[in-house]
Amino acid sequence: MKLEERVYKKLLEVPKGKVTTYGDLAKAVGLKNGQRAIGRMMNKNPYPVIVPCHRVIMSSGRVGGYAWGEEIKTNMLEREGVRIRNGRLANPDLIHRF
DNA sequence: TTTGCGGCAGGCC
DNA sequence: CGGCCTGCCGCAA
Which nucleotides of C are covered by protein (CB under 7 A)? Predict the structure, then answer.
């Protein structure tokens, strides 16, 4: 199974209302410093909507980028119950742990 | 808080 | 097959 396959699968473990970070996701699949690689895979997400790539944010707490626009990403998160304040995650407890 | 540079998979020569 | 470039990051300075 390709790495990206594992990444998407891993991401499906993140429940609605919670998020994860690029770094954590990278490590979850065996990459020590593959945050950027993860972001790239998300960007080219072959399974839009099915894979909740909008639940992946930066370790700093900032929302991070999104192929369809950061606003869309933020709205989707808010709609799932993840509050965002000025581009930042309002509640750090919402970060899912693998 | 902003800046710079390291690190990684995948696609394209 | 090898090298170069890109891209939703991370962290130290």
Answer: 6-11
pTM of the model: 0.95
Task: Assign domain A3-94 to a CATH class.
Answer: mainly alpha
β-bridge mates for residue A21, sequence order:
A57
Tell me the pairing of strands A88-89 and A84-85. Answer: antiparallel
pLDDT tens digit sequence for A1-23: 889 999 999 999 999 999 999 99
Residue A53 annotated in active site? yes
Q: How many CB atoms lie within 10 A of CB A50?
A: 10
Measured CA A34 to C1' C4 distance, in angstroms? 19
